[in-house]
């Protein structure tokens, strides 16, 4: 293999470090998301909220049907794209410009509100 040279790119390990505040923020956000999902699933599993129960059942059925048609990598890629669009919209305050009938926020999912 003549003509191929190895190019070494120096990587500064300090460039990839995050602050303690950022790490705490990431972990807190993840814990909030997991806690909210657990709360929604607990309420749905008890059957006290029929509307939420059927939403969860429908979503799981839809995801199972989607998994039979499309590969998991394609679904993960689509979810990543939607998540990136959501983060972009949230960072540019596009949610403030939505009409009032568009459900935005955790309370629109039917989950219990966090009082802490």
From TrEMBL:
A Pfam family in this protein?
Reticulon
Q: Where in the cell is it found?
A: Endoplasmic reticulum membrane
Provide the leader sequence positions. Answer: none
Q: What keywords does the record list, in alphabetical order? A: Endoplasmic reticulum, Membrane, Transmembrane, Transmembrane helix
Reticulon domain span: 12-83
**How is it placed in the membrane, per its record?**
Multi-pass membrane protein
Where exactly are the transmembrane stretches of this chain?
60-89
Q: Is Membrane among this UniProt entry's keywords?
A: yes
Q: Which GO terms describe its cellular component?
A: endoplasmic reticulum membrane
Q: Mainly localized where? A: endoplasmic reticulum
Judging by the UniProt lineage, the source's domain of life is Eukaryota
Task: Check the record and name the InterPro entries matching this protein.
Answer: Reticulon (IPR003388), RTNLB22/23 (IPR044177)
* PANTHER family, per database record: RETICULON-LIKE PROTEIN B22 (PTHR47879)
Give the protein name, as stated in the record: Reticulon domain-containing protein
Species of the source: Oryza barthii
The organism's lineage? Answer: Eukaryota, Viridiplantae, Streptophyta, Embryophyta, Tracheophyta
């Amino acid at each position: 293999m003549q003509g191929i040279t190895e190019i070494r790119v120096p990587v500064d390990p300090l460039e990839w470090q995050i602050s303690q505040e950022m790490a705490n923020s990431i972990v807190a956000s993840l814990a909030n998301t997991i806690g909210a999902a657990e709360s929604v699933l607990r309420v749905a599993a008890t059957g006290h909220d029929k509307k939420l129960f059927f939403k969860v059942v429908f979503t799981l059925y839809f995801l199972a049907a989607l998994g039979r048609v499309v590969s998991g990598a394609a679904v993960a890629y689509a979810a990543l794209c939607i998540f990136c669009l959501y983060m972009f919209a949230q960072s540019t305050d596009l949610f403030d410009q939505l009409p009032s009938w568009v459900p935005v926020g955790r309370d629109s999912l039917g989950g219990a509100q966090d009082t802490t």
